[in-house]
């Protein structure tokens, strides 16, 4: 079924068409959410919110871009909103120390499907340091870096998702890599 036809069926209230859309993009959206949120349970919640928002907003989709681009944009916005809320809650709970490690994301990074589970503790520590550094980048740099490095998107694809120019995205990626290098420089001798 063509994308245009699928979207029109969803707009007409065809639940099976929406189910097809969900099945087509669920795993991609969940993986994206996991990269932003870092916790599988929270990523699943955000992923569910993404598809609720897609269903509620499908009538506003105008076929100016691919449906996947539109869904990615919704996912990124909801992930960023989730992170902001989480930071606010952490700030409000003064007695709350570090509430949760990024163990879920580290496990995913360290044990992708098909790899042996005997990855060294040292490698896991390196990944933790890298992810902490990525997560400490400014939001606009973190988003483009994750989309480019971990989602494998080109500058043009990221530009469509973020409704920006490709040159602006290239500049953000450059600044993100430069800032990431500065943050990781003290660890480079250890790596």
List the helices and strands and how they pair.
Blueprint: H1 3-11, H2 15-37, H3 40-57, H4 67-92, H5 103-110, H6 121-135, H7 139-150, H8 155-162, H9 166-188
Helix pairs in contact: 1-2, 2-3, 2-4, 3-4, 4-8, 5-6, 7-9, 8-9
Describe this structure in words.
By secondary structure, the chain is mostly helical. The protein has a domain at 1-100: Rna Polymerase Sigma Factor, Chain: A (Orthogonal Bundle). The chain is built from nine helices and no strands. α2 (15-37) packs across α4 and α3 (40-57) packs across α4 (67-92). The protein is globular and about 60 Å long. The protein starts with a helix and ends with a helix.
Q: What is the CATH-assigned architecture of the domain at 1-100?
A: Orthogonal Bundle
| Major beta sheet summary | none
Query: What sort of overall outline do the alpha carbons produce when their principal axes are compared?
Result: globular
Classification by helices and strands: mainly alpha
Distance between the termini: 49 Å
Number of strands: 0
Write a brief caption for the model.
The protein is an all-alpha fold and 191 residues long.
List keywords for this structure.
74% helix, globular, 191 residues, mainly alpha, Rna Polymerase Sigma Factor, Chain: A, 9 helices
């Amino acid at each position: 079924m063509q994308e245009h036809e699928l979207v029109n069926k969803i707009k007409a209230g065809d639940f099976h068409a929406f189910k097809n859309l969900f099945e087509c993009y669920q795993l991609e959206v969940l993986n994206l959410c996991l990269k932003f949120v870092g916790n599988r349970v929270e990523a699943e919640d955000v992923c569910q919110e993404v598809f609720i928002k897609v269903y509620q907003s499908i009538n506003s989709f105008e076929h100016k871009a691919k449906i996947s681009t539109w869904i990615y944009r919704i996912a990124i916005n909801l992930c960023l909103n989730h992170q902001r809320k989480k930071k606010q809650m952490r700030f409000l709970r003064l007695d709350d120390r570090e509430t949760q490690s990024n163990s879920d994301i580290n496990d995913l990074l360290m044990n992708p499907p098909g790899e042996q589970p005997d990855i060294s503790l040292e490698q896991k520590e390196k990944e933790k340091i890298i992810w902490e550094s990525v997560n400490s980048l400014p939001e606009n740099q973190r988003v483009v870096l994750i989309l480019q490095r971990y989602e494998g998107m080109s500058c043009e694809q990221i530009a469509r998702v973020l409704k920006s120019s490709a040159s602006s995205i290239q500049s953000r990626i450059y600044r993100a890599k430069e800032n990431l290098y500065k943050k990781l420089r003290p660890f480079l001798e250890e790596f």
